[in-house]
Amino acid sequence: TTTSKLVIKIMDANDLPPLFSSEIYNLELAELTEPHTSVLQLSASDPDLGINSRIYYGITNTTYTKYFAVHQATGSLSLIYPISFKDIS
Ligand SMILES: [Ca+2]
C-alpha cells in the first residue's frame, strides 16, 4: 500500500474580532446640535488578513438609531436628530 500525505495550509481564518481604538468613547454634545453633524470618528481595526479584516460600522442598539447614524465604511458618527435634555432625562 501507499500512503500519501495531504497538507492543508490555512493562510488566514477569520478568527480575530475587530477592535476599536478605544473601549469607551466620550461624546459631549451641546443641546440641540444641528442634525447631520459629524460628531465622532470611530476607528476599529481587525488583525486578520484581506477580506477577513474588513470593517463595517453599524449601530445595533435601536435606542440610539433614532439619533445617530454611522457611516458603514468610514466609521464617522453623525447626529441625525437633535437631542434635547428632556429626551434623555
Ligand atoms: Ca476578523
UniProtKB/TrEMBL annotation:
Alphabetized GO MF terms: calcium ion binding
UniProt main location, coarse: membrane
Keyword Cell cycle included in the entry's annotation: no
Keyword entries, A-Z: Calcium, Glycoprotein, Membrane, Transmembrane, Transmembrane helix
GO cellular component terms, semicolon-separated: membrane
Membrane association type: Single-pass membrane protein
Cellular compartment(s): Membrane
Name of this protein: Cadherin domain-containing protein
